[in-house]
């Protein structure tokens, strides 16, 4: 009634103007509603039968969010393990509008990654990884770029001594620096994250740059800090939301922005380093991976010449620095924590070290005659379960796998935690039990479900280097120290949150052995 009276008091011109405004507002509202409906129809309509015919089964998704309402956002692999009990070893989930296929259990994962290696060899488009790598480098690249960069990386690492005596000598030398650092604490409690990061990182740094950093070097500490923070943030719920709803979340503050800031700083440092290498480059004296890449950049005349550009160099170095530091140092930190938790196992390892090595320098060849120590290191890797979800894969072509049709470009997650904790292959999958790798006579036995480095065409390029590092660092530390928890400290074997699963922050005491 009030509005009607107000309208009657308006002049004809004012009525016309107001009417036009109201009409315009109504038209905009209608258009927005139409566009919203079209958006929902486009992205959330039922998939075409021919596209998802016989697609792996899974829980029914909700509009917009898919299956996010049932997902443990902090530890998604736990949800996936539970769903596999209901839907089997090959099933699907939908996160937002993204359909993904989960592969669970040793037989299924190995079948996909080894017997269908080419079909499952791609990487999916993941917004946060695309922001970081732009499709360059080794880990998150695609197609021919990935093939060229992986071939270059593996062959160059091999030429520079990966898995050979020259790198073993570098590791042995770094072991001495690490022991000296541990001794400086004189048996008092200390936190070992950055120290272990630095020791392991120095091995890949020697390959990339040709020198090592002091553990207290401010630039080195800053770089490792960027990488540690990014690995934690990439596995956070906020970044998962960003990957799912990029167009909306990108404008909000949060971990996705910090990840990019850290990556920019890391890449800036790498660019400065290879610029200096370029100025001093001697094609006849290639001592580092950067040198080799720069020579390729100048000399390459083949069809692959276009791939040897600065963006690929920055990402290859960044990939190797992060991967070469994180997983091995985290595994070693788990190893020391588990030795404190199980002192009888620590003592058995030390007894074998005394019997085989004594006070001599540990050498990688000792591993062949140290079955108990070898079994303990394998079990540390299995129990630590460093990358529970694995790095994401995608189908490079349409494939029918285990009776299901999976279209080209489908996001695929071969769940490593389901392999390393496979009840059919490990007697006590959720416990730390070195006997998983020992027979009744104490001989080391391989377990086919031991796949911490994944498998197939996207398996870890630095696997041989990591194995050498783990054995030499671990035996050197237990040769020189007995590890104990500070008085009154409790052992917490719950992994911290992140894309990888390091131990929770804790203090250790390294007691020098006589």
Describe this structure in words.
The protein is an alpha+beta fold and 514 residues long. It has 2 domains: 2-44; 135-385 and 421-512, Cytochrome p450. 53% of the residues lie in helices and 6% in strands. It is built from 18 helices and 8 strands. It has helices at 2-9, 12-44, 76-87, 106-115, 127-133, 143-159, 165-183, 193-208, 218-234, 237-244, 246-249, 255-279, 289-299, 310-341, 343-356, 371-384, 416-420, 463-480, and strands at residues 90-95, 98-103, 393-394, 399-401, 404-406, 411-414, 481-484, 509-512. The strands form 3 sheets. A 4-stranded mixed beta sheet has the order 1-2-6-3, sandwiched between helices. Strands 4-5 form a two-stranded antiparallel sheet. Strand 1 (90-95) and strand 2 form a beta hairpin. Helix 7 runs parallel beside helix 18 (463-480), helix 8 (193-208) runs antiparallel to helix 14 (310-341) and helix 14 (310-341) runs parallel beside helix 18.
